[in-house]
Amino acid sequence: MKVSIIGATGYGGAELLRILHHHPQAEIVHITSESHTGKKISELYPHFRGIYDLELESFKDIDRIGDDSDFIFIALPAGHAMKIGLALESKKTRIIDFGADYRFSDVKVYEEWYGIPHEHRNASRIYGLAELYRDEIRSAKIIANAGCYTTASILALAPLVKHHLIESDSIIVDACSGISGAGRSPNLGNHFPEMYDNFKAYKVASHRHTPEIEQALEDLSGEKITINFTPHLLPMSRGILATCYANLKPDVSKEVINAAFVKMYGDEKFIRLLGRGGYPETKFVRGTNFCDIAWHHDLRTNRIIVLSAIDNLVKGAAGQAVQNFNIACGFDENTGLDSIAVYP
Length: 344
Description:
Blueprint: E1 2-6, H1 11-20, E2 27-32, H2 41-44, H3 62-68, E3 71-74, H4 81-87, E4 94-97, H5 107-114, E5 125-128, H6 130-137, E6 142-145, H7 148-162, E7 172-177, H8 192-195, E8 200-201, H9 209-221, E9 228-233, E10 240-247, H10 254-265, E11 271-276, E12 291-298, E13 303-310, H11 314-329
Parallel strand pairs: 1-2, 1-3, 3-4, 4-6, 5-6, 7-9, 11-12
Antiparallel strand pairs: 7-10, 8-9, 10-13, 12-13
Helix pairs in contact: 1-11, 7-9
């Protein structure tokens, strides 16, 4: 498959290049950057020297890029992918968007949380979380890659809401991310002296991933779900650990909980169930497309606590995009994604 990457110089785009280097069925034909047009990708990311020396183009000639590409990966901030999707609407090219432009079935929710008018309101799109929407992804024209916090949170909670084991109005998610989740552009809050030896919450009760988590859980449960979501930043480059709390319904046993997780994920390639009492760690998923999940039951409060760990740049972005690409193309889902975590 001939593929192009729009926005190849962000952390997500660079991670996608790293993964696709090991993909036998992907030929990269165009990579773009508006701020570094004309430079070689290896000038910006020296770890690509001798591997990728491609020149960065502008995506302004999107018609030509679309004609050359079977798939286009878009790794740009919110508001850009919808313009590209609209421009390529009549072409055969399929799109995998890393951003939020196509994640919401109701564009009004997107407009409310992102503050951007949606220009491609009638687009045919599918939410790109493979473990939940695999069948729909196979034929989708536009695949909206799930967000990083959302992937860790939704996968942790999905078996519980699908089997109606928890009270739908009791869900709390505390999720902690490495700083690469904030992107590559300099920002005082992510500056090394600000973050080193520090740990902080941000965007409490207002983070944009909140409605995305709610939408997926509502799809699974058929019920209205409102969550409390609080993100935190950790002084590390990559990784997410999500801690999810909910009240169990009466008489839900540990056997029923175990069965729900095994039924949903027992055959999944990229979900590793640590089971009751386990402790996922970001170190053990670093650089991989795995999501490690474990759960605990607080008998005093009858709450379940589910822990999940992912690499935000892989299962939370580029790896998930390649997993979706594999599904859409009919390749083995593991193609290009069989990395083992770098340890220690």
